[in-house]
Please model this.
Amino acid sequence: MGSSTAASGPSSLKLVGLVAAWYAGNTFYNIYNKKATNMIHAHWFVAAAQLVVGVVWSMIMWGTGMRKTPNLTASDIAACVPIGLFACLAHAGSVLAMGVGAVSFAQIVKACEPAFAAVIGLLLPPIDVKPMLAYAMLIPIVGGVGLACVKEGKGVDINVTAFAWASMANMAAALKGKVGGSVTKSLKGDKSKNMDSANVYAVMNIISFLFNVPMVVIAEMDTLQVEWDKATAEHGAQALIINIALSGFFFYIYNEFAFAFTANVGAVTSSVLNTAKRVIIIVVSSIVFVEPMERNTVIGSAIAIGGTFAYSLASKVKPAAKKKNA
Model:
């Protein structure tokens, strides 16, 4: 009896623990990330520094033997490079969007990610055609985001810069999912490579960091010292470093727990809970950072998030089997 229970899958307690850690880590990440980007106007630098925390954590885990070291060939690493690039752009886009705008607004725009994924699925091989109901759910997603951008008495009021960065994050996340699905599945399927869900994320995090560094050099190197001095003079070096370090720690931790949860339950359940997570972040960030939530914002975000929830379910509905003629 005991063996059959063990073989049936992970325990409910383990899954609840993974979700709780995932949600808590993501919420704290958004709080400390916003605090850090409010302190220093060098957001590519903040994004890169956050990834450093994960790189150090991985090296410690591998160096101490607490986790098996990945055994990758040059071709394996080359296959992971595009995924790391898109992971870099997805992470940096989110950081920059929340740096120049409200956390709640960035989360509302990021609810549009299924629309980007649907388009990418139709453009890049192998073509991924979703059920018509799933495509229909894109209407409330896009419409809800649009409604959230309509301010009472002002009409459409969009933080264009935040919207652009969040959209870049959406596109990069969709490309990462499209390009990375088969690669990560292959790596995890070969036990000799030691690529479980934690190591898959660790490798992607390292590659992502390597792509982030040139962007810091190109976009911010000329002003980085000035911005750092300005931030430390106003807020203190200790507060700045703590907020960057904690945002990096919680970013790595929440992603590792999310990867572990997805590996246990599959992409559909994970996608549904990822949608619910946005509600928590929007509510908490609105309270912590006193971000105003007008009626249209509340209604629009609810419609968009509800549409994302429905899309996650409808996109995996299998077509009914055709009846054979007698």
In short: The first helix runs from residue 2 to 7. The CA atoms of residues 43 and 253 lie 20 Å apart. Strands lie at 150-151, 155-156.
